[in-house]
Amino acid sequence: MSNFNKYLAIRNEYARIMPAWMDQYEKTGDMRQDPYFMDWDFSPIERQVWGDIRSLGLPFYPQIPVLNYFLDFGCPFLKIGIECDGKAWHDHELDKARDARIAKQGWMIFRIEGHECNRTIEPWTEYEEEERMDLVEKYFMTTSEGILSAIKRRHFNDEPCEQYQFLIDSTLFEHRSTPETRPTRRPLKRHDGPILAASALEGYIEEIMRRAKKVAEA
Q1: Domain boundaries, the chain
Q2: Rg (CA), the chain
Q3: How many CB atoms lie within 10 A of CB 218?
Q4: Whole-angstrom Cα distance, residue 61 to residue 73?
Q5: How confident is the model over 83-121, as pLDDT tens digits?
Q6: What are 169-208's pLDDT values in tens digits?
Q7: Who wins on pLDDT, 136 or 65?
């Protein structure tokens, strides 16, 4: 399939399902939808970020169309977009102009560099936090998982997050490529049932195994 036909199919599929998604969100505040309505073809860095998105339980979906563009990942309900910047495919000035047009549609865009998508930080325990603040800072500021975690804590948590607030603010400021907006979430009125672990983590187990192998070989 040519790129034109591929993106046309993506645009048509979103046009078909998005009204029902938005209607459910307006009525219930629920942003959880099945992202596997298509077979997605990710680049290596996009696959890494997709694994982080799924592991954090964020309602971002691949290749969201906005104007004549496609965001790498987007939350259409709050209009937050994620772009993964591999050096070979991005021009800073063109990206800046593109993001300015998208921002006029009410979107807030965060850009994650390719090296941040590929970086992992060893975990720490709560008892080590004071001693390992260097790792905490690197996690938020220089890894895709940390950047997405900062977005989750700011825009998707039900309660304001005071822990690591300065790091969260700094992380979002450094990676936001459009003016800051304050997305308003609809209150979650009900759930359609419990979220099964197998469903929530679908497509992520393979990513966990890949990362474990990568760490073991390092």
Answers
A1: 3-217
A2: 18
A3: 6
A4: 5
A5: 997 765 567 788 889 999 999 999 999 999 999 998 888
A6: 999 999 999 999 988 899 888 555 544 444 445 555 555 5
A7: 65
Q: Which residue has the higher pLDDT, 154 or 203?
A: 154
Strand duo 69-75 + 61-66: pairing: antiparallel
Phi (first) and psi of residue 49, to 5 degrees: -65, -40
Beta-carbon contacts of residue 203 (< 8 Å; ≥ 6 apart): 36, 50, 54
Task: Give the residue among 141, 123, 134, 114 at the shortest CA–CA distance from 48.
Answer: 114
For 113, half-sphere exposure in the C-beta direction (CA atoms, 13 angstrom radius) is 11
CATH 2.40.170.20 fits 3-217, yes or no: no
Distance CA(208)–CA(194), nearest Å, equals 23
